[in-house]
Design a protein that fits this description.
- The protein is α+β, with helices and mostly antiparallel strands and 389 residues long.
- The protein folds into three domains: 6-126, Butyryl-Coa Dehydrogenase, subunit A, domain 1 (Orthogonal Bundle); 132-229, Butyryl-CoA Dehydrogenase, subunit A, domain 2, CATH 2.40.110.10; 238-383, Butyryl-CoA Dehydrogenase, subunit A, domain 3 (Up-down Bundle), CATH 1.20.140.10.
- It has helices spanning 18-34, 39-45, 50-60, 77-90, 92-112, 115-126, 238-272, 284-313, 318-343, 354-366, 371-383; strands spanning 68-69, 72-73, 132-135, 151-155, 158-169, 176-183, 186-193, 199-203, 215-225, 274-275, 278-279.
- The strands form four sheets. The chain has a four-stranded antiparallel beta sheet, covered by helices on one side.
- The longest helix is centred in the middle third of the chain and has 35 residues, at 238-272.
Length: 389
Amino acid sequence: MSRVAPLDLLDLDNSLTDEERQIRAVVRRVVDDRVRPHVAGWYEQGHAPIRELALEFGRLGLLGMHLTGYGCAGSSAVAYGLACLELEAGDSGVRSLVSVQGSLAMFAIWRYGSEEQKRYWLPPMAAGEVIGCFGLTEPDHGSDPSAMTTRARRDGDDWVLTGGKMWITNAPVADVAVVWAQTDEGVRGFVVPMDSAGVTVGEIRNKMSLRASSTGEIVLDDVRLPADARLPLAVGLKAPLSCLTEARQGIAWGSLGAARDCLRTAIDYAVSRVQFGRPVAGFQLTQAKLADMAVELQKGYLLALHLARLADAGTLRPEQVSVGKLNNVREALEIARQCRTILGANGVSGEYPVLRHANNLESVLTYEGTSEIHQLVIGQKLTGLSAFA
């Protein structure tokens, strides 16, 4: 009997435009050529060629692709989501590079920066010549950014920043950071060149997850910045939170890529692996697992597509993004774990991508808001009552 790919079960390609399918095909090819042959080694070594990948992605227009002007492609939210799906089918760390660059660092400057800041930073960032990071999370303040202790004080016409940020993707290789700090007027954002005096970065090693991503700690020791380093339109905590909402859209898509890659691997393995005289795929328990995972993958895809269409229409709300991030990452992780069981002992081998995806998704489950945070966001919208405090 003929077989269909997991995402072909419901003919979901019919819901895409020709342009969206073309963009997906381009990203899939670059992942097949530049990521898949090497990513197992990057993961084992705990190092990936971030700068080389950034330049490659910049040439393809993937960095800040959903932003307009300043060298950005101006693609739709759906096209951006499909790109994230294909990137994370290669590896979550590779997709994180693109997400942090475009949806956090570049988006913050694009949305809240001055015209001068946009012209100076965005074109080289879109080209992958300048790498950015996003400094919000602190060693003692993750889910509660309102309690951040990093401070910015005025000193004449300058700003002086003191504090520290932790678990910052791209930090060890970044040229610029968007750093959020408390001021006498509330939370404000600053564009901080990483070669500024007083900035030091330590790479976080011994990670068991996202090993093909570069993660670091940023220490700010009386970092003096000119007045025009502040993002003029970023006022209050809503500014960095809006950047997180932007990034979560890509995560809702990207996690499906990891899940799809796991499911494809498990199906191919089960069809070829013979036990008790027949392929493992021919057993009812295996088919039940595969069917359940395929159904969840279709549902997650339809959810991500719906949210992206809302984003393109300008009607997407933050709590809707929380639904996408909560559901799709949670289900993707469960799919990865189930696929591991189908591969048996081979499921823990680096020869197959399944456990690497599962390990990566453990981080994806936590960053850009833990599952518990998104549950509370949704619960608050349903009840009108806040359970955060």
